[in-house]
Amino acid sequence: MNRVLSSLCLAAVSLNAQVFQTAIAPGKASPIAVTVLPDAACKLSGHGDSGISHSLTLYSDDQGHIRFHAQTTAESIAPANLSLQCQAGSQIKDYSIEITANAALAASSAPDIAAPPSSSSNIRPPLTGDPMAPTQPELLNRGYPMRPDPNQQPEAYATWLLMVTTPTPIISPKFVQEPNRFHAVANPNPGTNPVLPTTGFSGNWSGLVLYQDNRPGDPFPPAPYSMVWAEWYVPAVTGEPDIQDDSAFWTGMDGWGSKNVLQAGTEQQIFTLSIVGIQFTITNYYAWSEFYPLPESRVTDFPISPGDHIVAQVWQTFENGQPVQNGNCMIANLTHPGFLTFPILPPPGTIFSGNTAEWIMERPTVGGVWPDLSNYHAATMFNAFAVRSDLTTVNSSGNSLSLNLTMANANYVPLSQVTPTSNTSMSFQWLGFK
């Protein structure tokens, strides 16, 4: 698959290095895909005029495809030079990537970052017959997502119906656990709060949280949350000069007032280089899941791009009113069709409670600290609702159980905020990096 302007050739970087040359159009995020060692862990590095070096960790799929995005503010004479070192087992190989901002050259390249189904995928046939006939366990056993209630959530049901009646590549997900990257519980963690607030602040979360019950001590509390659903378009991000920024968009359960959280979402990473006065931004978008306090598990064979329509479903199976401790996640890309579903083993000693459900924009914990929040500008989540273990549906807002969280720094300067736009949709607004 040729996604570069020139043929591969030996470069002077090292004896085994190869060089890729490509062009992008200024003013928009352009996909870049190169072919390297299959199933490799790669470090993409860049050096700007300041001499500051930045890097992103990327993983190739089983066909050796590496994907990221680049953007510039103007046409450039000098290219941005990136180095890519990849390791697969004991094999290490170096590559050089030269990116020039030139609209005419970019028009002749026009790469498509959407990959064909990998060798680990197969096509799921459309669901036929009465879509209401199969039970939820039957749907899951046949490889379909859980069905929203068509009366309580008609828009989510319409999305579900589109998903199950369309032939879709089913991906057997490949994961890489990132030991220094966590999507932690909210900070400050409120513990058991005797009074239900309607608004609050967090250093790492912004979004909506549903409590289980606003009547502490109720002898007949409602059933715990067992499933959450959310849809969003992957936000395109920008960043600061000479800084690496990060953000994560996700839905999940637990995490507010507990020590664990079961979650799945997308990540938006960026670093910026200044080459002869022109800014080049390099971005990486990927899907992930986590059962905190375990670290993030990145999905390496499920390519996503800014603007992709993502559907995420996280659920916990209950038997006789008690949770079966394995969590479950479903992530679907409706723009470049792909579907994956998988269980998540909980950390040792973790007890899932289902006390809260969440829809969150986060700055994750990386190397023990919070990075600056990448500028996602504005983003939306929609068809956002939760289902209790007794099958009661609860909307993300418009009820007495909803908490609106603003992300703020240590001085309570807001970084990200959310505004409900309906009972099942919300608008996020970026306010600051740090």
Give an account of the 3D structure:
This protein is mainly beta and 434 residues long. It has 2 domains: 9-109, Immunoglobulin-like, CATH 2.60.40; 175-430, Jelly Rolls (Sandwich), CATH 2.60.120.700. 6% of the residues lie in helices and 49% in strands. It has a 20-stranded mixed beta sheet that branches. The two termini are 40 Å apart.
Write the layout of secondary structure elements.
Layout: E1 9-10, E2 18-24, E3 30-35, E4 41-47, E5 53-59, E6 65-72, E7 80-88, E8 91-101, H1 103-109, E9 121-124, H2 136-141, H3 154-164, E10 168-171, E11 175-178, E12 181-182, E13 199-202, E14 205-211, E15 225-233, E16 244-254, E17 261-275, E18 278-292, E19 296-299, E20 309-319, E21 322-333, E22 338-344, E23 356-362, E24 365-366, E25 372-373, E26 378-388, E27 393-395, E28 402-408, E29 414-422, E30 425-430
Parallel strand pairs: 2-8, 13-28, 16-25
Antiparallel strand pairs: 1-2, 3-6, 4-5, 4-7, 6-18, 7-8, 9-10, 11-19, 12-24, 14-23, 14-28, 15-20, 15-26, 16-17, 16-23, 17-18, 18-19, 20-21, 21-22, 26-27, 26-30, 28-29, 29-30
